[in-house]
Amino acid sequence: MNSIFNSGHTACAGCGQSLAARLVLEAAGPSTIIVNNTGCLEVFSTAYPQTAWGVSFVHSLFENCAAVASGVEGALKYLGTKDKINVIAQGGDGGTADIGLQALSGMLERGHDILYVCYDNEAYMNTGVQRSGLTPFETNTTTSPIGSCSIGNLRPKKPMPEIAMAHGIPYVATASAGFVQDLQRKVKKALAIKGPKYIQVHVPCPLGWRHESNKTIDVGKLAVETGLYPLIEYENGQLTGHKTITPKPVEEYLKVQGRFKHLMNNPEAIKAIQAVADNNIKKYGLKVEAQSAA
Amino acid sequence: MKEFIEGSRAVAEVVKLCKPGVISAYPITPQTHIVEELAQMVANGELKSEFINVESEHSAASAVLGASAAGVRAYTATSSQGLLLMAEVVFNIAGMRLPLVMTCANRAISAPINIWNDQQDSVSLRDTGWIQLFAEDVQEAADLHLIAYKIAEDKSMMVPVMVCMDGFILTHGIENVDIPTQEQADKFLPAYKPLYKLDVANPITMGPLAGPDYYTEARYALHKTLEDAIHLIPKVTADFAKVFGRTYNGLVEGYHIKDAERVIVAMGSVCGTIKDVIDELRAKGKKIGLLKITSYRPFPAQAIYDALKDVPKIAVIDRALSLGSYAPLASEIKAVFFGKKKKPDVISSFIVGLGGRDITKDSIKEVVRLLTAKEVTGEFIDLKPELLKENYS
For B54, which residue in chain A has the nearest alpha carbon? Predict the structure, then answer.
């Protein structure tokens, strides 16, 4: 093996998570230990006797990477090597925002020197596209299916960055597989800060979102450019960074994905999603014009 | 040096001697005194260890898993619901071959909620791949922690060990205990050198996915290692005796079984009460004995066979249930003799002391009284029939 995250693994073509995971690790560098929840990433990268990982990697269970990483960090502190080694705990959106939220909260509250990375592909993709707490409003998934009484997922995304920030941790950011340099800059910045850090990376999933596998980057960019996935940074509780956009209508993002196909003849439903984007744009001051006027 | 101290403190003192680099725990009665003592030792600077206060037992087990994967000796303790909450991690630790040691302060399982002692918690997790050693008294509970690390970290093992001690009876019982010196402990249990660890210089992948082509062999290997532990455990206890002067078999221990016509089989602190009853009955000329099971996993079938094959009548005491089936220990004792030529005429099974109901000498005498030519199965001792009457008018 010559790379710290090697090709030849079994991710789907166009997988946003495999791209983001490589970018995160390359930004972190070889002096890193990865602690991974169960999920697509772990499954496609560690099918014994092969591994894609050129750094030390440990997977235990679905929901406990934050707690396992706490133990790894404790051990490194005991051994006196923590300052030289990055500990990254990482999982998907279900493993982070749903079943793993308690362990994550504990890790953040206790102040461990760990970077937590949530790869947010907005559903349980490894088990077949079931709805998670980070599935967006009105998304068609296998457990929030459309039907005569349903237009998909009933609830907006759980505000994980705010939940992480409420723990009083020094650094929280969102990033996207569509904005590579931004993602890597945030990983480097986070790792330079001592204490718990949380980065949530939006990672398009061609299989679950039903978009063309060569459009992963474009779809990722559109989520940001419509205001549906604001790229923000909080340092010590203060909003210190946000990517400004010239907002595109959400329809441009929705229409390229099968998971939103049912909304295309439903202007009211699209309006509701546009309201989510508009709220983000207002809340974080994402609009370019708003910036120059200020 | 002998000290008159509480069981939990004795365990904490011995765990301290084992020098765990990471301790992680979540409070649950009756385990709390152990981890409180350890937290105080860390706070006082007497023990150099990272003490991680987690938000659940699931995370306590996960944190020590991570610490062990990173190459450090680690420790946790729990009870009852806590053990059940960490159950999936408990399986995972054994499957990952991490040599952790955990104390289980044995307590009943809800519902109804009950904080008192029986052994349903540990017994319910017998199939996790952990070695389970049951202590009879405080001294043994304390000593078993040194023995546990020595077994777990043996390069032929790399399996975790659960030291099971009866909640309250042993955790809160005060006994005269010989706490070893650090020098003795270091001689017996050298600093931990992991076979594998999460290392930046030599990267490894731990906890990979194993499909149908590999899973069976991973489980087979763990199973075989547990079986091999039957041979290692007595060697480790023999080494222990050389350093500390206290002799344990580690698998099973007989008390007056050579000439016994009736033998009671049991695990844990009830063995002390049984010994007292045996002394009384022996004084009256009754040939009664005890076979104490220390190692429930691995199950020492051969040692049990050798000890009991010539005994006419056996009474097995269970402090846990397999609801809707035979009592857990009794069914395994019976399995030992299935198809054998030499075997007891009677193997009767008794359920005693659930949810902290006292097991008195009279309870044991009742077991002895019922151990006749007529075999009984799952007979509850000290049951209150008046509480089972209900009117559906």
Answer: A106
